[in-house]
Amino acid sequence: MNNKNDQEKQIRVWCDGCYDMVHFGHANSLRQAKALGDVLIVGVHTDEEIAKHKGPPVFTQEERYKMVRAIKWVDHVVEGAPYVTTLETLDKYQCDFCVHGDDITVTADGIDTYHLVKEAGRYREVMRTAGVSTTDLVGRMLLLTREHFKNVIVSRRGDKEYSVALEHSSNLGTDSTARSPYTGCSQFLPTTQKIIQFSSGLSPKPTDRVVYVAGAFDLFHVGHLDFLEEAHKQGDFLIVGLHTDLEVNRYKGSNYPIMNLHERVLSVLACKYVHEVVIGAPYSVTADLMDHFRVKVVCHGLTPTVLDADGSDPYTVPKQRGCFKVLNSGNTMTTDDIVQRIIRHRLEFEVRNSRKEQKEVAITKALQKGHIKLNGDCEHTTKAAS
């Protein structure tokens, strides 16, 4: 029989990474890591380290720290974690082992960033979520920005400068490099099991004050996060309604949404402030919806409200019931702002994506041929990757 100390000992798990443009793939990896232990510690690299080894991050380190802290399975975030995971780092935070996905992660010199913990037997691997990565999302936005620049050339001013005509959309998905989920096919295959794994499994108690918000929540970011945190404070149970891809495209235009409905569902469900998600929620908040979920307050941010397709105010019912509330989260970031970041640094991100893909292809081929092993053999790994 185990003694009391053995019974009380918690298994502490370490994960680390860039966590740039935190998405459901990151969340799924952290969910799997948490399942291997009791406490999950997540180290996040600095902007300087990421720029050195991978290229410029989309989000700042402060934004990335905040996003990782909000993932429901994370217990503690370590800021400025070293790019190469060491035994000293694991020991410092009393972690039993390190967990990472089954994809390749190397330094600028082509060295396996986990070779030290692998050699010490303190490494575990979980399955990477297929069909999504930061590189993939940046690629989707670069696809959108290429169409953006075509319109800038045609019209230097006016609405067309910031929109993509829908007639272009049907052609984008035929390009082998196309990654837009609205125009092409995402490799991510959603299942009911995945939704169950991400879901809180909770239902509101009869006495709970239910709060409802709705939107696209595309490219889930710190602006969304701060808004949801503020909405969470308005009651006891927060429900988020997510609009369909077609609906988002109606009021956002261009090639939006960047992430499809299934991807957006998981990204929002991973947020610790969210209790439930309505998949494909109606754009207008109806009396039926409010009565069904016993909604007591409906919230919206400071962003302008787009009218419904019939020209009506989507918040007419909650306004009539006197339960509509505009929230100021103090964060003005929007999905458009992120795309603008990509536009401003387009060439840098194109180079970053190209280099990352070339490096991973080279290493994968070398591994398949048995020329290298990702075990810390710096010299051979560097040659194979160069």
From TrEMBL:
The EC number(s) this enzyme carries: 2.7.7.14
Gene Ontology molecular-function annotations: ethanolamine-phosphate cytidylyltransferase activity
A GO cellular component entry from the record: cytoplasm
Functional pathway: Lipid metabolism; Phospholipid metabolism; phosphatidylethanolamine biosynthesis; phosphatidylethanolamine from ethanolamine: step 2/3
Record-annotated Cytidyltransferase-like domain positions: 14-138, 213-303
Keyword annotations of the record: Lipid biosynthesis, Lipid metabolism, Nucleotidyltransferase, Phospholipid biosynthesis, Phospholipid metabolism, Transferase
One of the Pfam families matching this protein, by short name: CTP_transf_like
Biological-process GO terms, alphabetical: phosphatidylethanolamine biosynthetic process
NCBIfam families: cyt_tran_rel
Family: Belongs to the cytidylyltransferase family.
Record-given protein name: ethanolamine-phosphate cytidylyltransferase
Organism: Galleria mellonella (Greater wax moth)
Taxonomic path: Eukaryota, Metazoa, Ecdysozoa, Arthropoda, Hexapoda
Annotated gene: LOC113521240
